[in-house]
C-alpha cells in the first residue's frame, strides 16, 4: 500500500523545499514509508524520468557536493492532481474498511 503513495509523499516534501536524498530518506524512514535509503534512489530516478523533479548540485559545508531535488512545473501539477483525488479516495476506503458492526 505504501508503494502507491510514496512517490506522492516525496513530491509533497519537495513542494515545501528542495531537499537532498539523505533528507528525503530520513523523513520517509521516520514516517515508516521506506525501509532504507537504497529504496529511495530508484524512485527519485523515476520521478526525474517522468519530468516531475529536477536536480541541482550544491556545495556542502559538511562534506561533498549534495544533489538536491526540486519539483518541476509538471511535478507541481501532478501533486495537485493527487491532492484533489486523495481525500475522496481516503474517505471511501475508510468507509469500507472502518470498524466492523456487531
From TrEMBL:
Q: Which InterPro entries match?
A: Metal_resp_DNA-bind_regulator, Tscrpt_reg_PadR_N, WH-like_DNA-bd_sf, WH_DNA-bd_sf
List residues traversing the bilayer.
20-44
Say if the entry is tagged with keyword Ion transport: no
- Pfam families to which the protein is assigned, alphabetical: PadR
Q: SUPFAM superfamilies annotated for this entry?
A: Winged helix' DNA-binding domain
List, for all copies, the residue spans of the domain called Transcription regulator PadR N-terminal: 10-79
Source organism superkingdom = Bacteria
Question: Which segments of the protein form a coiled coil according to its record?
Answer: none
Write the record's keywords in alphabetical order, separated by commas: Membrane, Transmembrane, Transmembrane helix
User: What is this protein's name?
Assistant: PadR family transcriptional regulator
